[in-house]
Amino acid sequence: MYARVVVDVPVVETDRPFDYKISSALLPFIQVGSRVSVPFGARKLQGFVIGIAPASEVKKTRDILDVLDIEPPLTEEMVYLARKISERYMCTYYAALQSMIPAVLRSSYEKQVSLLPGTEIYAAILPEERAFYEYIRNRQPVSWGKLLKEFPLAGQWIKEGMENGRLAVEQVVGDRVTKKTITVLTPAVPPEDLERFREAMPKSATRQKEILSHFLHYYGPISQPELLSLLRISHQTVKGLVDKGILHREEVENYRDPYAGRTFKAAPKHPFTPQQQTVIEGIAEGMSPPAYFPCLIHGVTGSGKTEVYLEIMERTIARGRETILLVPEISLTPQMVERFKGRFGNQVAVLHSRLSQGERYDEWRRIHRGEVKIAIGARSAIFAPFRNLGLIILDEEHEGSYKQEETPRYHARTVAQYRGLYHKAVVLFGSATPSMETYNEATRGKIAFFKMTDRVKNRPLPKVNVVDMREELRAGNRTMFSKTLMDGINERLARKEQMVMFLNRRGFSTFVMCRSCGFVVQCPHCDISLTYHKSNRTLRCHYCGFTEREPEICPECGSEHIRFFGTGTQKVEEELARYFPGIRVIRMDVDTTSRKGAHERLLQDFREGKGDVLLGTQMIAKGLDFPNVTLVGVLAADSMLNLPDFRAAERTFQLVTQVGGRAGRHEKEGEVILQTYNTEHYSIQFASRHDYESFFLEEIQQRRDKNYPPFCRLVLFTFAHESVPLLIKMAEKFARQLREVIPPGAFLLGPVASPIARIKDRYRFQCMIKYKNDPHVLPSIQRIVRAFDEERKKAGMMLAVDVDPQMMM
Ligand code: ADP
Ligand code: ZN
Ligand code: ZN
User: Fold this and answer.
1) How many domains does the chain have?
2) Which atom of ligand 1 is nearest to the CA of 309?
3) Atom 5, ligand 1: which residue's CA is nearest?
4) Which atom of ligand 1 has the smallest separation from the CA of 452?
């Protein structure tokens, strides 16, 4: 048998499968989706089996050296998916395959074989096989490679041994065990023998006798640590009995459940509102008989979308099918998970970045083995290895974080569509502020369209007060709080209600400026202002991490009036304390939440009323639901409006709407105060009136006029190199080649300096292709990129190709 293997070589010329022979030892373990190690030139490389090669087509081959996993980590569907992704997002096939497996599996590791308890090794019939079992028993755990070397038939025997419960194979990464195990002791002989051994022991062996007495009392397994502490004995004592063959010792897998020890209460089910009912019936119709059914729920915050998700998930499970629920990383709060665990209990696996790699791997394996029905996670959970997917939900589908900003630069929305088509599944996009792309498709009937216009129980949407900060300045108010906001805060403090204060981006405009000459301290490598960190009086660059001490005098003019300026979350916290003595502020930003669990703890504190104000960045903009919050302050609503990005208006609208959605979700009425220097801007105006549709109509007109997505598609190329002349020369050469292949009606813009002109000492140039959806464009661009690859590499130039970019920086 021969396998088609995609090998880990970073050059594009070799981005194709190679054929390798499968030795009979490995045959039982190799399938499409297996990871293998293969010889490649003089090297040994990792690869994925993407197919079986017909012998007639195979020319010269070498043998596969080893298989890396007992079970193939990828399904056939995922192998197919990887090819689609590599074509669509112009990455190598290997990169796409690799991105679908958990990070711990990306490093190499070893497999160890050992006997399972109770294995009667003399059951083996062939003397060679018996020798194989004895070999394992005497040395266990034994490395996989060693067994294959010693016994020509080891592959087959291991496979059989695993199937009939005699052998266990465990995977070890470096010195870290990827699976958490506990050591368990069980008697290896019948109770009568235990008794006999105890009687035959010398008097001095009191400790060992105690152990035997224990097992005579409780004839069954016990964890070694438990036994040691119970009898106050040492490892050595236990080892003596294990060596004599009286006790059996083994490592038993113990899943690390990050939610262990918590109980989840099922929230009561409410009767559905008429709007919920309509949506549920519409989707239910779309899923029987099973069909690819893409749809959008446009529902205002608090309209009960999540309840709809829960119901559709339940119906999916009832049909024996599985669900992936994607949520933005920052919405993946314990509170959010609780709602799903409360309903579905341990049928839910959760994948998020705050888990350790080992924990993530455990959750992934529960999915891989079909032990759960639901996977909840951020972007990469779209690759949850389910085999019978019935439903994929993208909550907050407009979120930019669904696009991966490194290779492979896939959008989870697109991958969801691929998987939905493959499995004939429902693909459900939900949002209060859908992306222009998705909403456009919905209005044009390309995907099913459901609307939920009312909040549950007709709670009103919060009143939004737009405050013009230019007026405040004219009136002599130099603080960061408008008069309206000050009054609002005082009122809430008097009524003992809670508030959320939102500031866009950590340290946005917390730069150091000279009041005498206007000099602003910038990163010497990235051309952006450094951010001031008060705790250790340093300035830090948020792109490259460059750090320096706060200057005492201005490097330009020597003035002493140089100090930090603007509003970071720390600064707001200080100002709040200054104007509202005694106010209790809980600050949530990257600085206060870097420790594991800190995020959760701060939210819990706020929920318990230990703070009057929850102050934070993007992190608090969504997903949080606090009954006592009646005021949301947006301190600089337009700070996103001026970014060099055609989506700036859309992002501002989304942000304002989302933040506003935090207020008044419960019995108490809520108010939003929006401070801005751009009161007239349509995104601010429509957001303040909760008018998505008008915003959409205005914005779609702008997109049409200026020819931006969804009216065209984009590919962004970013070049980076230390030398500007070389960079320009090569970028221009590349652009010329591109111009020759793009069809009439497509444009190439640039090359020009990127908005962030330098990162980590590398200058950056970019160019962009705008084209109508034409299936020939990407393949011809791909050919140019590949042809250019060698020259580019030789010159040491970096090139990032971003198809359907979300970030234009
Ligand atoms: P969304 O996801 O659209 O923001 P949720 O599903 O979170 O909305 O619902 C908002 C609030 O209303 C939640 O507290 C939820 O428990 C409650 N809720 C949802 N549906 C109903 C219903 N049919 N009857 C009563 N309360 C409901
Ligand atoms: Zn100065
Ligand atoms: Zn920098």
Assistant:
1) 7
2) 6
3) 304
4) 3
CA gyration radius, the chain: 31
Whether residue 696 lies inside any domain: the answer is yes
What local confidence, expressed as pLDDT, does residue 418 receive?
98
pLDDT of residue 809: 64
Q: Which of 296, 305, 307 to mutate to test the pocket of ligand 1 (most atoms within 8 A of CB)?
A: 307
What is the structure's pLDDT at 736? 94
- Of all ligands present, the nearest one to the C-alpha of 456 is 1
Q: Please report whether residue 268 resides in a domain.
A: no
pLDDT tens digits for range 428-458: 999 999 999 999 999 999 999 999 998 887 7
Choose the final residue of a domain: 253, 284, 312. 253
User: What is the 435 CA–ligand 1 centroid distance (Å)?
Assistant: 23
| Choice among 99-108, 405-414, 705-714 with the minimum mean pLDDT | 99-108
Q: Residues 416, 336: one domain?
A: yes
Rounded to the nearest whole angstrom, what is the distance from the C-alpha of residue 277 to the centroid of ligand 1? 13
Q: What is the distance between the alpha carbons of residues 567 and 480, in angstroms, rounded to a whole number? A: 8
Q: How far is the CA of 553 from the centre of ligand 2 (A)?
A: 8
Q: Do 358 and 309 fall within a single domain?
A: yes
- Same domain for 15 and 78: yes
Residue closest by Cα to atom 23 of ligand 1: 272
* Strand residues in 64-108 grouped as ranges (E): 66-67
Clarify whether residues 662 and 725 are in a common domain. no
Q: Are residues 581 and 668 in the same domain?
A: yes
Determine, yes or no, domain membership for 809: no
Residue 307 sits in the same domain as residue 379: yes
From the CA of 520, which ligand is nearest?
2
- The model's confidence at residue 264, banded by pLDDT at 50, 70 and 90, is low
pLDDT more than 70, % of the chain: 88
Pairing of strands 181-187, 222-223: antiparallel
Provide the strand spans (E) within 214-339. Answer: 222-223, 247-253, 293-299, 322-326
Residue that terminates a domain, selected from 146, 177, 208: 177
Which residue would you say has higher pLDDT here, 277 or 513? 277
Mean of pLDDT values over 161-187: 68
334-344 vs 305-318: helix crossing angle, rounded to 10: 40
CATH of the domain at 407: 3.40.50.300
Q: Which atom of ligand 1 is nearest to the CA of 339?
A: 16
| Atom from ligand 1 closest to the CA of residue 267 | 16
What's 78's domain CATH number? 3.40.1440.60
Q: What is the pLDDT of residues 215-248, one digit of tens each?
A: 887 677 777 877 886 777 888 888 889 988 889 8
Q: Give the residues surrounding ligand 1 with Cβ less than 6 Å away.
A: 270, 272-273, 276, 299, 301-307, 456
What is the domain range of residue 46? 2-106
Hey, is 713 helix, strand or coil? Answer: strand
Q: Whose CA is closest to 316, among 348, 274, 364, 339?
A: 348
Order the strands of the 538-540 sheet from edge to edge: 531-533, 538-540, 547-549
**Whose CA is closest to atom 9 on ligand 1?**
304
Query: Domain with 758 in it: what CATH number?
Result: 3.30.70.360
CA 306 – ligand 1 centroid, Å:
7
> pLDDT, tens digit, for every residue of 791-808?
888 898 999 999 999 887
> Do 687 and 600 share a structural domain?
yes
- Considering the entire predicted model, what is its pTM? 0.78
Q: What residue ranges in 469-577 does DSSP mark as E strands?
A: 498-502, 511-514, 531-533, 538-540, 547-549, 562-565
Same domain, 316 and 362: yes
Distance from the CA of 523 to the center of ligand 3, in angstroms? 5
How many angstroms separate the alpha carbon of residue 511 from the centre of ligand 3?
A: 14
Give the atom of ligand 1 at the shortest distance from the alpha carbon of 272.
23
Whether 37 is covered by a domain: the verdict is: yes
Report CA(540)–ligand 3 centroid distance (Å): 8
| Type of residue numbered 388 | N
The predicted structure's pLDDT at residue 137: 84
